[in-house]
Amino acid sequence: MLKRLLAGGRGRALAIGMLRSYLVLALRTTRWTFDIHPDALPVLTPRDGRSALIAFWHETLVLTPALWWWAARRDPALRMHVLVSRNRDGRMIADIVAPWGVDVIAGSTERTGRNKGGAAALRGLLGQLGDGSLVAVTPDGPRGPRRHAQPGVAGLAVLSGAPVVPVGVWCRSWRLGTWDRMLIPLPFGRGRVVCGAPVIPARGNRAAAAQRIGDALDAATEAACPPPAGGLSRLWALLATLLAPALILLLRRRLARGKERRDRLRERMGLTGRPRPAGRLIWLHAASVGESLSILPMIDRMMARDAGLHVLLTTATVNAADLLDRRLAGEAWGGRVIHQFVPLDVPRWIGRFLRHWRPDAAALTESELWPNLIEACHRTGVPLALINARLSDRSRDGWRRVPGLARRMLSRFGWIAARSAEDAARLRALGATRMDVPGDLKEAAAPLPADPAQLAGIVDAISGRPVWLAASTHDGEEELIAQADQVIRARHPDLLTVIVPRHPERGAAIAAGLETPPVPRRALGATPGPTDRFWVCDTLGELGLFYRAVPIVFIGNSLPGPGRGGGHNPMEPARLGAALASGPLTDNFTEAFARLGDTIAIVADPAALAEWVDGLLSDPARLAQSRRRAGPVEGDPDLPDRIAARLLAMAGG
């Protein structure tokens, strides 16, 4: 009966009107989430005359107006065209989409070679692409096989020079019994549109190029479908909600230990007294000091690109907040950065945080994977990225215990910028798909700063004595450092051992635990006298001073012991030409240690550490050679700018 209604006359007009009205109802009442790859965003909303082919499987044809409407809101002048066949189905599609500002180009070529307007359609497509329009195509249309990309799309891309943007669409729907199993949307549901990274087919083998397009379409379609473990995700959210009262007690305990700020404790529950600034706002989250420092160059590039941009920068530690207060005060754009403490991963707290700040895009750094936070960003439509992404073997093994939850969480990211190929492999093993390997922001960072006057004072305080530095030590490591000191001192009686703890608030406990109190502490303004064995430098953000002043550096968090492991960034001291050693636990920076190779000595215990330090102190020529081999180390200076550009694109810039 439907075929008869569509054959012509008033019945056809009535049927077309009813179908159009139903699709408008279903698509407009669906709560859509748009997950756009940063490289695809400028292609979908071109302002410089660029064109693109928008590819989607034929089964999602009636869902794609959701993407057209989204793009048209961002650029009302945008011109869109869709390629359809000249048969009855094609004419029906043309009539349905006509009021939506979508132009139709009709034509196809059958497998028998009989031309049905294909040549004219090709000329029309090339003309529209040359004029900077978007052209939507179904690589498996008009008759299949289902989800099998034909070479014609790759050929069109090669001829026009236009990139192919793979689009996957899903919403609550039912399927027809047609060859493509077409999806028909149901109203008042949820939907997701995923646009992958543009594919640029090379000249030559069109079949191989079509396969690339088909694989990209499959990946986008899979990403658009609801990820697994929805029940486990809801259970996680319920447990966090039930634990909220206990988390408040935990915050008060941390406050008593100096790990929270009393006047800003409410920020950890998503509350704030600061207003949201007008205009575009990008939210960046960095857990602690190292992550915060690594993204400052990227923030600088974003501010330079957009003079009206504001950045909401969240951290989880007081140390990072204190450091940022000092660093941002010296930047011309520092007033456009708002610091807040990140809310704990409780759905209600995250929800009110997002409702207040309404970020245009968000990026988490390194291994900050919080399921409720990530899910909340997805539900509220905040484009989300994971930058400088890292995942240790231990963390990967932990997430493997809940593989569905891990896959669901990683699927929410529109873009993951892995720190290294090894980190990318671990993330892919958990189900991450939309990923690049740009490089390590910490390697691209400038050398740690040092105030010349402060540096001169430190050099004066330690001059004339054999000295070595234990940097970024963790709880329990200082006892091992003291054991090494005792062995070294047998040959160097006037030795000075400088200890810079990772967490400065531990300075008093470290000084009290050493065998020769009172130990001078830099936090109290004390400098070492000629008989002092140790100097505890429990200040924040001064490693740049000590890496310059002390030529022999041991990197902490690397000797075996409870609660330790993974090491710290060796590039920071290497960049300043220090002779380096580390314990065997280096999982957090595997690629950086591999890159530096045997320029870093790996010491298994205090005895080996003492032997290494003694060897350098006893042989100045060997020390000089070790320093020359270690540095200087240069990262990719353009990396912060490339990531900044992508984040701005995610935010609609």
Can you tell me about this structure?
This protein is an alpha/beta fold and 653 residues long. The protein folds into 3 domains: 26-110 and 132-224, Glycerol-3-phosphate (1)-acyltransferase, CATH 3.40.1130; 233-444 and 642-651, Rossmann fold, CATH 3.40.50; 452-630, Glycogen Phosphorylase B (Rossmann fold, 3-Layer(aba) Sandwich). Helix content is 43%, strand content 17%. The strands form 5 sheets. A 7-stranded mixed sheet has the order 1-11-8-2-7-3-4, sandwiched between helices. Strand 5 and strand 6 (115-116) form a beta hairpin. Helix 20 (477-489) packs across helix 25 and helix 25 crosses helix 26 (620-630). The radius of gyration is 30 Å and the shape is elongated. It starts with a helix and ends with a helix. The relative contact order is 0.08. One of its GO terms (cellular component) is plasma membrane. The record marks 366, 442 as: Transition state stabilizer.
CA-based shape: elongated
Please give the share of residues in helix.
40-55%
Report the biggest beta sheet as strand number plus sense, adding barrel if it closes. 7 strands, mixed
Indicate the structural class.
alpha/beta
Uncertain residue ranges: 109-113
The number of strands is 24
- What strand order characterises the main sheet? 1-11-8-2-7-3-4
